Amino acid sequence: MSFDIIIIGAGPGGIFSAYELAMHAPDLKIAVFEEGRRLEQRKCPIDGKKVKSCIHCPTCAIMNGFGGAGAFSDGKYNITNDFGGTLYEHIGREEATHLMEYVDEINCRFGGAETKMYSTAGTDFKKKCMQNGLTLLDASVRHLGTDINYIVLQHLYDELKDKVTFFFETPIESVEKTGDGYKVHTADAEYEAPRCIISVGRSGSKWMETVCKDLCIPTMSNRVDLGVRVEVPAPIFEHITDELYEGKIVYRTEKYEDNVRTFCMNPHGIVVNENTNGIVTVNGHSFEDEDKKTDNTNFALLVSKHFSEPFKDSNGYGESIARLSNMLGEGVIVQRFGDLERGRRSTEERMAESRTIPTLKATPGDLSLVLPKRILDGIIEMIYALDKIAPGMANDDTLLYGVEVKFYNMEVELDENLETCHKGLFVIGDGSGVTHSLSHASASGVYVARHILENRA
Ligand SMILES: Cc1cc2nc3c(=O)[nH]c(=O)nc-3n(C[C@H](O)[C@H](O)[C@H](O)COP(=O)(O)OP(=O)(O)OC[C@H]3O[C@@H](n4cnc5c(N)ncnc54)[C@H](O)[C@@H]3O)c2cc1C
User: Ligand 1 atom 19: the closest Cα is on which residue?
Assistant: First the structure.
């Protein structure tokens, strides 16, 4: 079968490419291939009773399917070039910002209009950060929340389903370059188009590597972010989370001049396990539903590491450290900040005395036996710096869970059109290594769609 454009992956990148193409050129024959299921069929079997932990389904309902990795997320669409990816390096800051705003308009039109947009513009908190050696990154954030994020995706699918041919539960096995375009192969069929947009996200990282190898597309190693998830009583950060929802704060350490940053703040949220290929790391969630809110706020403190020569495997480094924590703690380790500072492990008895009640059952232990000194020193310095703007942060009962690791895809060599060295083959979203967020991935999809529309024969 042949199409005008083939899109691989129905995460935000693929959805927004399809949307822009279908709305502006209804005559185009567009196909979207998605390894996972339709939105309403995405159900993780973990129910807390019969199935308590990950049973490694052939395709993960949480990561794969219409809506991609962020379908069940908190839906924080950050409009900024300060974090979330380096799309601006390819397309310019102004264009990137306009596209993220356009994505926000669409999200609002498809069900997100009543949700709140938070902004760092004009906040006094920025000055307070500066006065204490911290930098508050500029951003506007549309917080859709889990429920509305799902509704927006549902509405987008309803809009697209008659304009685009969707192939669900149809992983693309390989991409072949033909004389005048691309042929994609599934387990039992092949499809052709003169143009192909690949948007396979983090879950498609290994597959993306093989495509780049097969088609001789140059790639570069990316960074890995390592650190801990911090949990404190919610009132300690309330003045920040009430105004900004999520403050992205960066601290440059005195000792090594490394940057330590806050990531993924979850006011009144919970700390959760995350299973990546059998390695258990830590993450956080928050809820719109008042009944699910807890008394704690959690966020990550992360340090980026990028290896180039002779060792290039930044993700491998992160995985080894996560494995070490799993070996010592049989999963995630939790430690009171007071115990870490006194050079002793946390124990069940010490945890029982903690006034901050953990929201995740983790193994009390010693994170200094897991995290490299340089990273841990940076995290400790940042905790004291944050204590100046959020007193109580450096309390003995502040809980540190480890390890938190953020893996990034290798970066695919792309030009200013997000096109590979092969004409008509584009790579967008997190699978390209260029974006790491909902808004950047979506914006990259719109950008490539517009480029294709402008250059139609
Ligand atoms: C729990 C969680 C919470 C998050 N919360 C936020 C947040 O609040 N804000 C934020 O900005 N970011 C958040 N993120 C990150 C965000 O979800 C991603 O940055 C974003 O989804 C990337 O979009 P994408 O389209 O590039 O890739 P993805 O969303 O990963 O979509 C890629 C799709 O491609 C499909 N695919 C992969 N390989 C193939 C193949 N060979 N053939 C066919 N299909 C394939 C996958 O099944 C997947 O559906 C969160 C991520 C997670 C996991």
Answer: 437
Give the binding-site residues of ligand 1, using a 6 Å CB cut-off.
Answer: 8-14, 33-36, 64-65, 68-70, 73-76, 78, 84, 171-172, 199-204, 207, 429-431, 436-439, 441
454 contacts: CB under 8 Å, gap ≥ 6: none
Q: For residue range 354-374, what is the model confidence (pLDDT) as tens digits?
A: 999 999 999 999 999 999 999
- Residue 72 CA to ligand 1 center (angstroms) comes to 10
- Tell me how long the chain is: 457
Beta carbons of 117 and 140 less than 8 angstroms apart: yes
Categorize the per-residue pLDDT at 59 as very low, low, confident or very high, splitting at 50, 70 and 90. Answer: confident
What is the model's pLDDT at position 457?
63
Looking at residue 217, the DSSP 8-state letter turns out to be: -
Residue with tokens 């940057």: 259
Centre of ligand 1 from the C-alpha of residue 17, in Å: 14
Average pLDDT of span 285-313: 89
Please state, in angstroms and rounded to a whole number, the distance separating the CA atoms of residues 258 and 227.
Answer: 13
In angstroms, what is the span from residue 63 Cα to ligand 1's centroid?
6
- Residue 308's alpha-carbon distances to 83, 222, 314, in angstroms, are 22, 9, 8
pLDDT in tens, 385-424: 999 999 999 999 999 999 999 988 899 999 999 999 999 9
Q: What is the pTM of this model?
A: 0.91
Q: Which of 136-140, 287-291, 333-337, 418-422 has the lowest mean pLDDT?
A: 287-291
> Which of 17, 168, 175, 200 has most ligand 1 atoms within 8 Å of CB, for mutation?
200
Q: Nearest-CA neighbor of 427 among 66, 21, 14? A: 14
Q: Please answer whether residues 275 and 319 qualify as being in contact, where contact means their C-beta atoms are separated by less than 8 angstroms.
A: no
Respond yes or no on whether the N-terminal peptide bond of residue 218 is cis (omega within 30° of 0): no
Contact 427, 244 (CB under 8 A): no
